[in-house]
Amino acid sequence: MALNVLVICGSLRKGSYNAALARALPALAPEGMHLTDAPRVDTMPHYNYDDQAATGFPSSVTAFADAIRAADGVIIVSPEYNWTIPGTLKNAIDWVSRMKEQPFKDKPVALQSASGALLGGSRMQYHLRMVMQSIDAQIFGKPEVIVNMAASKFADGKLTDQGAIDLIKQQLAAFGKFIDRVKV
Ligand SMILES: Cc1cc2nc3c(=O)[nH]c(=O)nc-3n(C[C@H](O)[C@H](O)[C@H](O)COP(=O)(O)O)c2cc1C
């Protein structure tokens, strides 16, 4: 199995738990799964149809879409903001969703979240699952990776919680099989 998987991070901050979670993935991936970081989601301007109509898709949006197209699968690792998807991440998804060759169409997508709170970003995942469905992605089911109470599960920017590490290994292995099964 040789699979290229793109990792999109929904947090912008330096000390981000979700960025730390994304950094932990390559060491936990099954053999043959190669992980690459997507361009940051804040490289894209606010979506405005007038701008799209006047000047087309900005190069930052094209670069983000090309990275998604080139990947066999995508993992979105994101915090939850006010019970839902952070605006900057949603803005990036909105941009590429307007493209003729819509990059998420038929793309296998898995979700992960980390949060300092009890529910671990699960409500964000539920909403993102619906958004992915709406743009025809092949959304991966279980196991879900929800890293709650993050302050106790990371140290010095590294994921240290064995339960979370084991779960991520299981998810990545299952996601690899899912990609092989559903890839168009
Ligand atoms: C605007 C905003 C809204 C938030 N809303 C939620 C929320 O609804 N649920 C939650 O679990 N955490 C929420 N948080 C707390 C985040 O989980 C916490 O800041 C987390 O560290 C963000 O992820 P990051 O470390 O990857 O940046 C919110 C944080 C911000 C800045």
What does it look like?
This protein is an alpha/beta fold. It is 41% helix and 18% strand. It has helices spanning 17-28, 49-55, 59-70, 87-97, 122-134, 162-182; strands at residues 3-9, 33-37, 73-77, 108-114, 138-139, 145-147, 154-155, 158-159. The protein is globular. 41% of the residues are buried. It binds flavin mononucleotide. Residues 11, 13, 16-18, 79-83, 114-117, 119, 121 line the site of flavin mononucleotide.
Key terms for this structure?
18% strand; 184 residues; binds flavin mononucleotide; 41% helix; 6 helices
Characterize this entry briefly.
The chain contains six helices and eight strands, in the order βαβααβαβαββββα.
Task: Name every ligand kind in the structure.
Answer: flavin mononucleotide
Query: Strand share of the residues?
Result: 15-25%
Shape estimate: globular
E-strand count: 8
Question: Helices, strands, pairings?
Answer:
Blueprint: E1 3-9, H1 17-28, E2 33-37, H2 49-55, H3 59-70, E3 73-77, H4 87-97, E4 108-114, H5 122-134, E5 138-139, E6 145-147, E7 154-155, E8 158-159, H6 162-182
Parallel strand pairs: 1-2, 1-3, 3-4, 4-5, 4-6
Antiparallel strand pairs: 7-8
The structure holds flavin mononucleotide.
